[in-house]
């Protein structure tokens, strides 16, 4: 019949896990920084962890099609739960002082802080960097799906777009592109 063969990494050897172990390490570091100053109940901690799990499993992996008008991407969520993730918008709690927050608002503030730290680091890791004395080998083409880095984006919101036009400089290197987004064309 149909059987599944499981392959496990060696115990106490997370370096064999590569990408997923790096993601676990990143989450642990940001979670420690975000939750360290709070005394949370079991249910509050469980809620924070589930919301963080939702954020991480919403990250875009690959585009679903090559259509220039299609901005849909595949995320880890369908593999885990069989459908896309839905996150109900929550008011921004980051500006409120601690002593005025209710317990629920505190959980939301922790989740939003974690999202801001983790998503920023994740986007920085995706960016290819070259040393200044080596030419960059970026593969920038019309139709390429891109992830747009913006500040103050709520959890689970990844700003996606497709390159519609290239604007190379006098040296022939493309540093400016036009991107089709849900909000229109951006340059």
From TrEMBL:
All copies of domain DUF5641, residue ranges: 102-184
Source domain of life: Eukaryota
InterPro entries, per database record: DUF5641, RNaseH_sf
Molecular function in Gene Ontology: nucleic acid binding
Secretion signal, residue range per the UniProt entry: none
Name of the featured protein: DUF5641 domain-containing protein
The organism of origin for this protein: Schizaphis graminum
């Amino acid at each position: 019949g149909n059987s599944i063969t499981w392959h496990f990494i060696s115990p106490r050897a997370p370096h064999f896990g590569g990408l997923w172990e790096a993601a676990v390490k990143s989450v642990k570091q940001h979670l420690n920084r975000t939750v360290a100053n709070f005394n949370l109940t079991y249910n509050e901690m469980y809620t924070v962890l589930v919301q963080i799990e939702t954020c991480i499993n919403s990250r875009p992996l690959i585009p679903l099609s090559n259509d220039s008008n299609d901005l849909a991407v595949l995320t880890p969520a369908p593999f885990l739960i069989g459908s896309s993730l839905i996150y109900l918008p929550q008011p921004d709690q980051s500006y409120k002082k601690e002593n005025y927050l209710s317990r629920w608002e505190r959980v939301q503030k922790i989740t939003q802080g974690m999202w801001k730290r983790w998503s920023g680091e994740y986007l920085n890791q995706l960016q290819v960097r070259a040393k200044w004395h080596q030419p960059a080998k970026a593969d920038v083409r019309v139709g390429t799906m891109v992830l747009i880095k913006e500040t103050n984006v709520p959890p689970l919101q990844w700003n996606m777009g497709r390159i519609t036009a290239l604007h190379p400089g006098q040296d022939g290197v493309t540093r400016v592109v036009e991107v089709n987004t849900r909000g229109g064309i951006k340059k």
